[in-house]
Structure formats: C-alpha cells, structure tokens
Amino acid sequence: MEENKIQLREADAINLLHQYNQDTLPKRFGLIGKAWTGLLLIVFLTGVFFYTTQLRNGLIITGMRDFVFWGIYISNFVFFVAISLVGSLITAILYLLKIPWRAPLTRIAEIIAVSAIIFAGLIIIVDMGRPDRMMNMVQYGRIQSPIIWDVMVVTTYMTLSILLLYFPLLPSIAFCRDHMKGIPKWQHRMYKFLALGWKNTSQQYNLVKKAITILSVMIIPVALCIHTVTSWLFASTYRPGWDSTNFGAYFVSGAFLVGSGGVVVGMYLLRRFNAGYDKYLTNDHFDKMGKLLALLAMIYAYFSINEYLIPAYKMKGEEAHHLNELFTGYYAPMFWSVQFFGMILPIVVLLFKRGRKPRTMFIMAILVIVCAWFKRYLIVIPTMSFLPVQEIPEAWKHYTPTLPEWAITGGSLAGALLIITFFVRYFPIISVWEVAEEKGISHDVIYKHLHEGNEK
Amino acid sequence: MENNNEKADARTNRKDFLKKSLFTGSLLAAGAAGLNNLTSCQNKSGKKVKVLTPQGQVVEVDESELGNPESCCAATPAEARKGIPGKKFVMVIDLSRCKHALKCQDACQRYHHLSGMNVWLKVFKMHDGENMAPYWMPKPCLHCDKPPCVKVCPVNATYKRDDGIVLVDNERCIGCRFCMAACPYSTRSFNWEEPQYLHETRGSTYSPETGFPQKKGTVEKCDFCPDLLKQGKLPHCVTACPNGVFYMGDLNEDSVSNGAETVRFSQLIKDKGGYRLNEILGTEPSVYYLPPVNRLFPFEDPETGAAKMEKVN
Lengths: 456, 313
Description:
The complex is a heterodimer of chains A (456) and B (313).
Chain A: H1 2-24, H2 31-57, H3 72-84, H4 86-96, H5 106-127, H6 136-139, H7 146-166, H8 170-179, H9 185-194, H10 202-235, H11 247-273, H12 283-314, H13 317-327, H14 332-350, H15 358-380, H16 403-426, H17 432-438, H18 443-455
Helix pairs in contact in A: 2-16, 3-5, 3-11, 3-15, 4-5, 4-10, 4-11, 5-7, 5-11, 5-16, 7-10, 8-9, 10-11, 11-12, 11-15, 12-14, 13-14, 14-15
Chain B: H1 2-18, H2 23-40, E1 48-52, E2 58-62, E3 89-94, H3 103-111, E4 122-126, E5 135-139, H4 148-152, E6 158-160, E7 166-168, H5 178-182, E8 189-190, E9 219-220, H6 226-230, H7 236-240, E10 246-250, E11 255-257, E12 262-264, H8 265-272, E13 287-290, H9 302-312
Parallel strand pairs in B: 3-13
Antiparallel strand pairs in B: 1-2, 3-10, 4-5, 6-7, 8-9, 10-11, 11-12
Helix pairs in contact in B: 1-2
C-alpha cells in the first residue's frame, strides 16, 4: 500500500517534470518576436554606425564640452551597472536565504545582470577620448585610481555573473541537446558543445549546487563593490552633489530597486508571450516580487532623504546652488517626476494587494526603470552645470545630448536587450530543475526521468 | 640703476658669506642673481653670468649662450617626468595690479599654440557678494602639492614632478576626464576634436613640457612653462604682463620675480597677506594670491563700459 503511494508520487513527479521541460523549451519567435528583434537590431546598428563617426571625429560629436565633460554615456554606464546588481540579489541573496519562490526567477535576473554588465563595460569604452589606448590601464595602471578599482570589480562581476548563469544552465542545455527535434544542425552542435557532456548524474547536480553556493557567496561582496566603486567615481571628487559619504549606499539601494523592476518586466513579458508560463511565473510570484519591490523602494527613499534633505537643511554655498536647481530650478520637473513616479508612486501602489497584480506591477516596474535612467542623468549632469562659471562660450554651460549621443546610448540599451532576446530564443529561461527541486522532486527522479527520455 | 644692482650684489655677497656652509643659502644668492640677469639679458655677449644648472649647481657661462629658444628643447615624455632637481616652483599673483589687460592670456595661447576653445589661463571677474568689491583674478593651473587630479588618474598620465609642477602626458592619457572631475578649480580642458592649427606648426615632436602639439581625445592644462624654467626664464604670462601681476620663483630659494623686481617670497606673502584658493580643500596649491588692496587701477568692467558707450550713442 505504502509502496504504491510512493510509486504514484514518483509517476506524478515524472509527468510533472516532463511537462515542465516541454513547456519551457525555447520556441521559434512569432511575428511580434521577429519584429522586436529586428527593431533592436536596427537601433543597435545605428548606434554602431554613429560610434564609427565618433571614432573618426572625436567626442566633438557629443554635447559634452569642458564644463559638462561627462554626459549620458556616463549616466547610462551607471544605469547598466545598477540594473546588473539584481543578479546578485535574486540568484545569490535569495538563494542563500533559501527563499523558495526565487527558483523560476533566477535565470531572468541573471541574464539581465550579464547583458547589462557587458554593455556597462562597452559604454564606458565609448566614453573614452582615446579608446585606442585602453591597454594603458594594464600597462600603467595605478591602484590609487577609482577607475582601476572599477575596471577590476566590473570584470570580476562579469565573470562571476556569467558563471552563475552558466552552471545552473547546464542541465537545461543538456535537455535541449537531447530533446529538441527539428532544429538546425548548428543549434544542436551549440547545445552539444555548451552542455559539456552533461549526463544528469546526482554527482553532477551536487557539483553544480556546490558551485552555485560558492559563487553566490562570492558574488554578493563583488556586487556591492561594483556599484559602490561606481559611486566613488563621483564621491571621490570635491564637486557639490557628488561630494557625499552617502553615495555608496544610495547607489546600491537604487540599483536593487531598478534591477528588481527589470525582473518584473521580464516576468510579465515572458508570461504574456509564452503560453503556459503562468504555471511557473504565477500571480503569487508577482505578489512576492511586488512586496520586494515596495521594500526596496522604501530603502531607496530612506537613502534619498539622506542624500538630498540633509544638505538641503544646511544649504551651504555651492551645494545650495546645486540643490536649488534640482528642487525649484531648471531640473525641477525632471527631479520631482523621477522621485514621484520612480519611488513614491510604486511604494504606495505596491503596498496594496490589488496593486501587486501582474499588469499593475508591469506598469510600476516600467516606471521604476525609466525613472531610474533619468535619475542617473540627474546624478551625473546637474553637478557640472549651473556652477558659476566664466570665460567659456554660453553653449558650453548647458548640456544637451546630441543626436549621435542618443543614438549610441540607445544602441547600447538595444544591444543589452538583444542579448536577453537571443538568450530567450535559444535557451530555456525557466530553470526547470531548480523549480522541480523547490517542488520536492529529488535528483534521483530527475535523473531517472531524463534517462528514460534518452532511451526512448 | 647700477647703484641698485651693486647694492643688491653686495647684499647677496654678504649673505653668501654668512651662509656659505648652507646649501640653501648659496642657492638663494645664485637664484636671485641668476633670475635678475636672465630676465634682463639681451645679446650682450662676453659677459659671464651665473646660472643654476638642472643639477642644482651654480656655473658661470657666457651670456650669449643663454636665451636661445632653439638651444634648449622641451624634454621627451619620459624625461619630463623628472623635474628640475632642488627646485620647488611657486607663483604669486598680485590681484591689486591686475587691470584685465589679458596680455598674459594672449601670450599663453600664442606660445603654447593653443587651438580651439582651450584657454589655459583664465581671468575671472570676481564678485564674491553683493556688498563686496569686484576684482579681476587670473587663474592658471594651481599646481597643487596634493593634486586631486593626479590621485585619480588611472594611467599615471598626469603626474607631479619633484619640482612641484603638475604635467599631463598626452601620449599616455586615455581621455577618461576623471582628472577634470577631480580638479576643484576647473583648470583642465579637453581636446574634443583634432586640434586645428591656424599657423604652421614648426617641429612636431610632442613634449609634456610644452603640451604641443595637442592631441585629440586627451586632457591638457597650464604647465608653468617648464621648458622656460629649465633655461632660467620666466613663464610667458609673467613676462607678458604689463603690470607685473605675476611673480614666479623657487620656494627653496625663497625668491620670486615678476621680471621687474625680485623679492623674498616669504616676506611678500607676510607683508601683503597672501593666501591660496580654497585652502579648506587641503590641496595645497603652489599659486598664492595677494589680495586686491591699494589697487593700481580702478575696477573697470568691459561689459559695463560697452553698456555706457551704447547709452552715450
């Protein structure tokens, strides 16, 4: 009798698992998917084209000049670094805390992290006056410079993130290798190569799990470092608006918020365009992510208050000049919109259960992301504008990004989205074996199931 | 005039005698004499003058050997990093003498062949508060002793030499512009495009000591004219100023000269209440300012002047 029960459970489990795997196999794009990819490719290639003109003519094609010498390339870099932090939050922090609902979200978070950190590295090269001398940073690198710290932590984070994406992906690639029929030969070869001869043995699973644990522990301090060091690029100067001891925490808290927003958008779109994904990305997941998003927005609000209101209480010299421009001056409309739509409104909406429905969450997450981009614009640019200055042409006092600058920045955003899009097209975005594990299906069952599949 | 010179010579001789055992003492004497001679020399060959070699030794050479710009070329990027041994350059800017003639700026732009909008030496109209008196303030690079720009450079393209001069190596600069962010005095400018020279560029070997030729995608700034200092000459802004606003000299010798007079640096600062910009930041600039008191000229704003003219017409 008892034996029978276990058998039934196992049979159920096998059925469930088979269904999971079939559900999440990457599918060919429909019309919308193709149009989306095409659009991204056009935007990306436009950016590449304008970058070649920048290489020829120099940074003169941008709106930057001596006075405002950093522009949207830098604010976009900060944005990319920020959004990439979510990989460490969902895959590492929630994993180590053994939060059960994180399993189907890990891969979404990790591919956002990988694509964003790759383009963070690329956009910072775009900002360089002499990209041809990049290797000087290796040859003459000075450890005193925060830029060298940034190069070190960003490359470390990139490596850890790619590994943290790749290791849990191995069983999924192996499944694609063994079970996807009617695919082009190159695609099959790619799976075969990337699966590294994965055989679904218990031993392999244990190794992967051990690797994930080690990487998760390692990536948390590195993740905190990348954004803290990025904030230090500003905080290590004397400029009002940047000269802040609060900057590290302020940046990191904002980064977790925008990254979680990215995951919510990913969840919503995957569910919207893939039938059957609502089994994995349930309303409950949205509810949980909504609570997380609200919490992160509140933490961000706390650091924002520290960042702006305490200097505003003192209103000292140049700091006052900067704050007045943000609060009531030229940048006031952008500043208050960003604070309201990117932070206050999401907090209010997401605190209610009705606000944590997928569609509302999607809108809130889009607001959070767009506002986060402009928030970084407000962190980088106003500090350099509007300081009392003489002896420079009037046009240099205000910064307006030029068309090529927008095109290159847009191209970098499209490039990051392209990486995510291609990943979704060719790899299972839901980590089935982790989901199965959360459901209590043991490795032995997974192993058995997959081997039966092979024999068939 | 000659009497004065003799007096000065006698004074320096006496000092020399008194402090003969002290290396700094002899440097002071030689420096004062050297600067005087060098700034006034004009093709009077046959006369021997004392000069300080880059190694810090006093030697006598024929005057005709001095003052030839071609004889002493600017150093290569590697050599330029060393600096002139035993020297610590300081500049004093006397705000009470500035009348916004902009001769300093013209000379700087011309001799550094600066193209485009890059201006190394700016002259600001300072008006610190509603009830404060406005004045003109020339501002070169302050060549800080604790330069924030050098601290943040990822590739050691900008560096401080032993003689206190902060230079930029445009053959190493990667154009990240972090130094521009770090500089609290907004001294640096960037070559946003390929520099376009209006005149013929003679000799195109680059040297950080002249910053010429400029290079696209790199940062540049005032360099204190180390190619001239090396020859015992004063920088272009100092010699071009009709009112003797700029004093240049050596802190170790405790003497500065504006071309017309050579004075004790410490005494000048003490007597006239010299100060440095934004002392609160702890950057310790090498440029000192003398406050605009007992001014040689009344403050005249070209803008208000033009406005007046319009009214009259």
